[in-house]
């Protein structure tokens, strides 16, 4: 890759990555049918958050608390509170609670970085709105920053959580509030409307996301703001003044074109930015924690925290 801010980590996917992609492809995707989402989800019984594995209580120090009336979980290394604190926003198109696959990724990140990690279990759409989730995110930030300080606080998240990572930073900047030291979006959702036609070229490779389905969820999440609102869709935001950003993105993911556009825009705005791409990586490939690619990602996160 020619751009100095973009790096292809591996030219070919590992065998484990290919195996992981195959396994995921055999599972039903909640993001594959736009009409099923549009008509079925508003009538559903709201699914529950996947429970944190019991082993977390043996391996880590766990705190359960609430912010803005919504559940929050903080995981500290067993040796004590981490030097860094990462607020991790889980993905799920903003319409699904945390998946069981998120917890092993949180575990891997605690071990790799030595950081404390806080996971907001935010209310989801369409039963709730962006207002509730955003209010919780800001309240969590204020509480963590009061203890750790902004200079040892990072925002991270996957997919919709990657969107929240950027949106929270933008909202705080615009409100004149303090900002975290690092932004670490995983396979982030940049544009609620998925307007870039280049995404269609990747659609057949993406085993999880259907562009039309994502657009339905984007309309719901954007709500009264509209899909072009720069907080809902950070692809359209003025990025000046944001902290350093490290983006991690698989190449079998319809979000890839927007990741490239956003990274270029951030770099042009003077924001230190790095885009790491992984050949053959499906959407949120880092959740396949047994792969070389996932292990490489959490190592790079550790380096980004330590060295910027």
UniProtKB/TrEMBL annotation:
Single GO term (MF): hydrolase activity
One Pfam family from the record: Abhydrolase_3
Record flagged with keyword Cell inner membrane: no
Residue stretches making up the Alpha/beta hydrolase fold-3 domain: 86-286
Keywords associated with the record: Hydrolase
Protein name: Alpha/beta hydrolase fold domain-containing protein
Source species of the chain: Pontixanthobacter aestiaquae
């Amino acid at each position: 890759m020619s751009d100095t801010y973009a790096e292809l980590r591996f030219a070919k996917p590992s065998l484990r990555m290919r195996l992981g992609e195959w396994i995921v492809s055999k599972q039903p995707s909640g993001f594959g049918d736009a009409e099923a989402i549009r008509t079925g989800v508003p009538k559903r019984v709201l699914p529950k958050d996947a429970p944190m594995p019991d082993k977390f209580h043996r391996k880590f120090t766990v705190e359960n608390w609430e912010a803005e009336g919504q559940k929050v979980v903080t995981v500290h290394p067993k040796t004590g509170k981490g030097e860094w604190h990462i607020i991790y926003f889980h993905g799920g198109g903003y319409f699904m609670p945390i998946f069981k696959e998120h917890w092993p990724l949180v575990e891997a990140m605690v071990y790799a970085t030595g950081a404390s990690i806080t996971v907001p279990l935010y209310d989801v759409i369409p039963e709730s709105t962006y207002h509730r989730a955003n209010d919780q995110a800001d309240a969590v930030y204020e509480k963590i920053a009061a203890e750790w300080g902004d200079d040892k606080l990072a925002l991270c998240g996957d997919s919709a959580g990657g969107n929240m990572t950027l949106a929270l930073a933008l909202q705080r900047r615009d409100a004149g509030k303090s900002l975290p030291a690092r932004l670490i979006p995983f396979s982030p959702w940049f544009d609620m409307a998925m307007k870039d036609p280049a995404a269609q070229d990747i659609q057949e490779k993406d085993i999880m996301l259907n562009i039309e389905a994502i657009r339905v969820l984007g309309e719901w999440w954007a709500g009264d703001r509209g899909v072009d609102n720069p907080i809902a869709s950070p692809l359209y935001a003025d990025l000046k003044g944001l902290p350093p950003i490290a983006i991690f993105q698989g190449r079998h993911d319809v979000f890839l074109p927007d990741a490239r556009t956003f990274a270029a825009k951030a770099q042009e705005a003077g924001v230190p930015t790095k885009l790491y791409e992984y050949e053959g990586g499906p959407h949120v490939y880092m959740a396949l924690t047994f792969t070389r690619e996932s292990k490489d990602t959490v190592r790079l996160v550790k380096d980004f925290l330590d060295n910027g």
